[in-house]
UniProtKB/TrEMBL annotation:
<keyword id="KW-0697">Rotamase</keyword>
<comment type="function">
    <text>Also involved in hydrogenase metallocenter assembly, probably by participating in the nickel insertion step. This function in hydrogenase biosynthesis requires chaperone activity and the presence of the metal-binding domain, but not PPIase activity.</text>
</comment>
<comment type="similarity">
    <text>Belongs to the FKBP-type PPIase family.</text>
</comment>
<dbReference type="Pfam" id="PF13899">
    <property type="entry name" value="Thioredoxin_7"/>
</dbReference>
<keyword id="KW-0963">Cytoplasm</keyword>
<dbReference type="InterPro" id="IPR046357">
    <property type="entry name" value="PPIase_dom_sf"/>
</dbReference>
<dbReference type="InterPro" id="IPR013766">
    <property type="entry name" value="Thioredoxin_domain"/>
</dbReference>
<feature type="domain" description="Thioredoxin">
    <location>
        <begin position="301"/>
        <end position="423"/>
    </location>
</feature>
<dbReference type="GO" id="GO:0042026">
    <property type="term" value="P:protein refolding"/>
</dbReference>
<dbReference type="InterPro" id="IPR001179">
    <property type="entry name" value="PPIase_FKBP_dom"/>
</dbReference>
<keyword id="KW-0143">Chaperone</keyword>
<feature type="domain" description="PPIase FKBP-type">
    <location>
        <begin position="83"/>
        <end position="198"/>
    </location>
</feature>
<dbReference type="GO" id="GO:0003755">
    <property type="term" value="F:peptidyl-prolyl cis-trans isomerase activity"/>
</dbReference>
<keyword id="KW-0413">Isomerase</keyword>
<dbReference type="GO" id="GO:0005737">
    <property type="term" value="C:cytoplasm"/>
</dbReference>
<protein>
    <recommendedName>
        <fullName>peptidylprolyl isomerase</fullName>
        <ecNumber>5.2.1.8</ecNumber>
    </recommendedName>
</protein>
<dbReference type="InterPro" id="IPR036249">
    <property type="entry name" value="Thioredoxin-like_sf"/>
</dbReference>
Amino acid sequence: MDSIAGVRKFSLFILLIGLSMIGSGAAAIVAEAEPAVAPKEVMVSDYEQFQTMLKQSIEEAEEKGQKEIFIELKEDPNIVQPADMVEVDYTVVDQQGQVVYSTKEEMFARMDERYADLFGQSGKATGAETVLAGFAGLFPGIGHAVLGMHSGERKKTEVTPEKGFGAREEKKVKAYSRRRVLPKIARLTVNSYLENFKSAPETGKAVNFSTYFPSRVTGVQNGIVTLESMAADGKTYQDDFGAATVSVQEDSVLITLEPLIGAIFDAEGKRGVITKKDADHFYVDYNHPLAGTNLIFDVAVHRLQKFSEFEKIQIPWNIDNNTAMALAEQENKPVVLVLYAEWCHWSQRLLTNTFRDPRIKRFHDRFVWLKIDSDKEQVYKEIFGQENYPMIVLMNSQGDILEKIGGFQDGGTLALYLENILTGKTLAKAIVHAKQQSTASSQHCKSAD
């Protein structure tokens, strides 16, 4: 480890709470022996205190040439501290007092329509949520909002963008031309045609070469497919983000876009909002709608469980399928199966981060836990239809599949799946809210990597 400042900042937090999670590109080492330097004892109850303590400890260690820092948190049984697990209800409002999100049904029903598409797609409130204090929750900022609170306490606290949806970045505002020119006659290789249209080219066949009008195959020769536009001159097409008018010219087709301000625009795998337009361009803001916004959290802590309650709990992994399934049937417990690959960093993050999260550890005796390297034992990859790594399969005690979850999952998200399996519920769509509008399913390794 070459640099404490460059590598250890996140890892130190994991070290001091007894977890060996790793951040992206960083390694965490949990010492098995007694530290050569006496541990530094500190008491922290909020995010700022913790960050200040870490910065000071890193600077002191660098001055002394130390490569490791040992920190012990003084545990206060009555106060929410980093890595404690708390059960909370909360309502989030913006600076105008409009409801952004709530775990409570009565407040969820009052959610402002501007936020309904972002946070209300489940159609109902989740109910009390289990939060890992100091870490990102299902709603960004809640993990910081609970720090310093007591069990049974209710309070309102303001959360800054840095602890919520992040600062607004101008570089995330992109400009697009309002005019697009397509050739009237297009030529593709046969392979490219097959890849795009999933069928063999036939003369006279119409295909959707453009979003707004079809093209007709006029010939196939020497591995080249020729397509001729069937665009209707002057026709206007309605789109989700506005309208498009087609103008057929001698050798090309001109598409002129008329975007609507405030409309959703999807491009390059991202979702943004059209914020303005001029004669030549329109502008899409890919910042999260709440980026740069201070939010007010009304939080009630129902239950506090200190990290020390979970520190020594280990997930009792099985590595043999037959043994695990026999145990599940014998004890009438559902099964958590992890299909992973050793070389996949998302697999390693799942096993070393997520399954050491107290929100997952609390279920250690409620499930049978099975992990299989399906990169080496390919038969399991085929059985469960696995395309990428990692993959989590949830089954009942008889081995029937209840849920298949692709990609890396954080502790909060996976905990919801597990809780819903135990209660017989189905995980509602779109209840997980990330800082960026992306999904955990993109956090995976392709089989060919």
